[in-house]
Design a protein that fits this description.
Structural class: mainly alpha
Number of helices: 5
Number of strands: 2
Shape: elongated
Distance between the termini: 63 Å
Length: 199
Protein backbone atom coordinates (compact mmCIF):
# COMPACT_ATOMS: atom_id res chain seq x y z
CA UNK A 1 0.00 0.00 0.00
CA UNK A 2 1.60 3.25 -1.15
CA UNK A 3 1.75 6.52 0.72
CA UNK A 4 -1.03 8.03 -1.38
CA UNK A 5 -3.47 5.19 -0.77
CA UNK A 6 -2.69 5.23 2.97
CA UNK A 7 -3.32 8.94 2.96
CA UNK A 8 -6.65 8.53 1.17
CA UNK A 9 -7.61 5.74 3.56
CA UNK A 10 -7.01 7.96 6.60
CA UNK A 11 -8.74 10.94 5.00
CA UNK A 12 -11.77 8.73 4.29
CA UNK A 13 -11.84 7.45 7.88
CA UNK A 14 -11.62 11.03 9.20
CA UNK A 15 -14.54 12.11 7.02
CA UNK A 16 -16.60 9.13 8.23
CA UNK A 17 -15.69 9.92 11.84
CA UNK A 18 -16.80 13.52 11.37
CA UNK A 19 -20.12 12.48 9.82
CA UNK A 20 -20.91 9.95 12.55
CA UNK A 21 -19.82 12.19 15.43
CA UNK A 22 -21.86 15.13 14.14
CA UNK A 23 -24.89 12.84 13.95
CA UNK A 24 -24.20 11.65 17.50
CA UNK A 25 -23.66 15.21 18.72
CA UNK A 26 -27.06 16.28 17.35
CA UNK A 27 -28.88 13.51 19.23
CA UNK A 28 -26.88 14.16 22.42
CA UNK A 29 -27.92 17.83 22.20
CA UNK A 30 -31.54 16.78 21.75
CA UNK A 31 -31.28 14.63 24.89
CA UNK A 32 -29.25 17.21 26.89
CA UNK A 33 -26.51 14.66 27.58
CA UNK A 34 -23.85 17.13 28.66
CA UNK A 35 -20.84 14.89 29.31
CA UNK A 36 -21.06 13.21 25.88
CA UNK A 37 -21.60 16.62 24.24
CA UNK A 38 -18.35 17.89 25.73
CA UNK A 39 -16.34 14.78 24.82
CA UNK A 40 -17.85 14.73 21.30
CA UNK A 41 -16.73 18.33 20.83
CA UNK A 42 -13.13 17.39 21.65
CA UNK A 43 -13.38 14.42 19.30
CA UNK A 44 -14.42 16.70 16.45
CA UNK A 45 -11.35 18.89 17.09
CA UNK A 46 -8.94 15.93 17.15
CA UNK A 47 -10.45 14.36 14.03
CA UNK A 48 -9.81 17.67 12.27
CA UNK A 49 -6.20 17.41 13.49
CA UNK A 50 -6.00 13.94 11.99
CA UNK A 51 -7.49 15.14 8.71
CA UNK A 52 -5.01 18.00 8.39
CA UNK A 53 -2.16 15.76 9.51
CA UNK A 54 -2.91 13.41 6.64
CA UNK A 55 -3.67 16.16 4.15
CA UNK A 56 -0.66 18.38 4.93
CA UNK A 57 1.87 15.65 5.79
CA UNK A 58 2.16 16.60 9.49
CA UNK A 59 3.35 13.63 11.60
CA UNK A 60 2.85 15.54 14.89
CA UNK A 61 -0.83 16.02 14.09
CA UNK A 62 -1.09 12.31 13.36
CA UNK A 63 0.51 11.44 16.71
CA UNK A 64 -1.97 13.74 18.50
CA UNK A 65 -4.85 12.19 16.57
CA UNK A 66 -3.62 8.67 17.41
CA UNK A 67 -3.31 9.39 21.12
CA UNK A 68 -6.78 10.91 21.17
CA UNK A 69 -8.19 7.86 19.38
CA UNK A 70 -6.88 5.67 22.21
CA UNK A 71 -8.73 7.87 24.73
CA UNK A 72 -11.79 7.91 22.47
CA UNK A 73 -11.86 4.10 22.37
CA UNK A 74 -11.67 4.08 26.18
CA UNK A 75 -14.57 6.55 26.42
CA UNK A 76 -16.74 4.50 24.08
CA UNK A 77 -15.95 1.26 25.92
CA UNK A 78 -17.03 3.07 29.10
CA UNK A 79 -20.30 4.10 27.40
CA UNK A 80 -20.94 0.53 26.29
CA UNK A 81 -20.38 -0.68 29.86
CA UNK A 82 -22.55 2.17 31.19
CA UNK A 83 -25.53 1.30 28.99
CA UNK A 84 -25.10 -2.42 29.72
CA UNK A 85 -25.16 -1.74 33.50
CA UNK A 86 -21.78 -3.42 33.99
CA UNK A 87 -20.63 -3.54 37.60
CA UNK A 88 -21.65 -0.46 39.59
CA UNK A 89 -22.66 1.50 36.49
CA UNK A 90 -26.35 2.29 36.12
CA UNK A 91 -27.76 3.72 32.89
CA UNK A 92 -30.56 5.41 34.90
CA UNK A 93 -28.08 7.44 36.96
CA UNK A 94 -27.22 11.11 36.38
CA UNK A 95 -23.61 10.37 35.47
CA UNK A 96 -23.76 11.35 31.78
CA UNK A 97 -26.19 14.26 32.08
CA UNK A 98 -24.15 15.86 34.89
CA UNK A 99 -27.09 15.94 37.30
CA UNK A 100 -29.72 17.49 35.03
CA UNK A 101 -31.93 14.38 34.93
CA UNK A 102 -31.87 14.15 31.14
CA UNK A 103 -31.59 10.83 29.33
CA UNK A 104 -30.90 9.66 25.84
CA UNK A 105 -33.18 11.18 23.21
CA UNK A 106 -33.85 7.68 21.91
CA UNK A 107 -35.54 6.59 25.16
CA UNK A 108 -38.82 8.29 24.20
CA UNK A 109 -38.30 9.22 20.54
CA UNK A 110 -36.97 5.97 19.10
CA UNK A 111 -38.80 4.38 16.18
CA UNK A 112 -42.16 3.03 17.38
CA UNK A 113 -41.73 4.15 21.00
CA UNK A 114 -44.89 4.98 22.94
CA UNK A 115 -44.08 6.50 26.34
CA UNK A 116 -46.50 6.31 29.27
CA UNK A 117 -46.10 9.24 31.66
CA UNK A 118 -47.29 9.27 35.28
CA UNK A 119 -50.63 10.94 35.90
CA UNK A 120 -49.28 12.93 38.86
CA UNK A 121 -46.45 15.03 37.40
CA UNK A 122 -45.39 16.81 40.56
CA UNK A 123 -41.66 16.83 40.99
CA UNK A 124 -39.31 18.06 43.69
CA UNK A 125 -37.22 19.82 41.06
CA UNK A 126 -39.28 21.68 38.43
CA UNK A 127 -36.25 21.93 36.14
CA UNK A 128 -35.73 18.17 35.86
CA UNK A 129 -37.46 16.62 32.85
CA UNK A 130 -40.23 14.15 33.59
CA UNK A 131 -39.31 10.59 32.65
CA UNK A 132 -41.93 8.14 31.47
CA UNK A 133 -43.04 5.29 33.72
CA UNK A 134 -42.53 2.89 30.85
CA UNK A 135 -41.91 2.96 27.10
CA UNK A 136 -43.52 0.34 24.87
CA UNK A 137 -43.29 -0.64 21.22
CA UNK A 138 -39.73 0.50 20.50
CA UNK A 139 -38.06 -1.21 17.58
CA UNK A 140 -34.78 -0.94 19.53
CA UNK A 141 -34.42 0.05 23.17
CA UNK A 142 -32.50 3.28 23.68
CA UNK A 143 -29.56 1.58 25.34
CA UNK A 144 -29.12 -0.72 22.31
CA UNK A 145 -29.04 2.35 20.03
CA UNK A 146 -26.44 4.03 22.26
CA UNK A 147 -24.33 0.85 22.41
CA UNK A 148 -24.46 0.65 18.61
CA UNK A 149 -23.33 4.28 18.33
CA UNK A 150 -20.40 3.57 20.64
CA UNK A 151 -19.50 0.36 18.79
CA UNK A 152 -19.38 2.20 15.46
CA UNK A 153 -17.21 4.90 17.04
CA UNK A 154 -14.81 2.26 18.41
CA UNK A 155 -14.52 0.59 15.00
CA UNK A 156 -13.84 3.90 13.23
CA UNK A 157 -11.31 4.91 15.90
CA UNK A 158 -9.44 1.60 15.48
CA UNK A 159 -9.35 2.07 11.70
CA UNK A 160 -8.22 5.67 12.16
CA UNK A 161 -5.52 4.61 14.61
CA UNK A 162 -4.27 1.95 12.19
CA UNK A 163 -4.29 4.43 9.29
CA UNK A 164 -2.51 7.15 11.30
CA UNK A 165 0.21 4.75 12.48
CA UNK A 166 0.82 3.45 8.95
CA UNK A 167 0.82 6.92 7.42
CA UNK A 168 2.97 8.39 10.19
CA UNK A 169 5.48 5.58 9.71
CA UNK A 170 5.60 6.37 5.99
CA UNK A 171 6.15 10.07 6.66
CA UNK A 172 8.94 9.37 9.14
CA UNK A 173 10.64 6.99 6.70
CA UNK A 174 10.55 9.68 4.03
CA UNK A 175 11.96 12.19 6.54
CA UNK A 176 15.20 10.21 6.96
CA UNK A 177 16.72 11.70 3.83
CA UNK A 178 17.72 15.30 4.53
CA UNK A 179 16.85 17.78 1.78
CA UNK A 180 19.76 20.20 1.56
CA UNK A 181 17.94 22.60 -0.73
CA UNK A 182 14.87 23.02 1.48
CA UNK A 183 16.35 22.05 4.84
CA UNK A 184 16.91 24.29 7.82
CA UNK A 185 20.65 23.85 8.05
CA UNK A 186 23.00 25.22 5.43
CA UNK A 187 24.74 22.63 3.33
CA UNK A 188 28.40 22.83 2.33
CA UNK A 189 27.18 23.62 -1.20
CA UNK A 190 25.58 26.86 -0.01
CA UNK A 191 28.33 27.96 2.34
CA UNK A 192 30.55 30.54 0.81
CA UNK A 193 34.12 29.31 0.99
CA UNK A 194 36.71 32.06 0.73
CA UNK A 195 40.43 31.42 0.43
CA UNK A 196 42.53 32.55 3.33
CA UNK A 197 44.35 35.68 2.37
CA UNK A 198 47.90 35.79 3.56
CA UNK A 199 49.44 39.10 4.42
Amino acid sequence: MGSCSRRHFLLSICVLQLLFIIERQVFDFLGYMWAPILVNFFHIIFVIFGFFGAYQYRPKYLVTYSLWNLLWIGWNVFLICFYLNVGLLDRDSDLLNLGTGSVSWFEVNGYGCKPTYPMNITSEDPYRPVRPERVDGCLLDYHIVEITHSGVQCALALLGLFGAICLGHTYLDEDDSFDFMGGDAKSPQHTAVHPIQQK
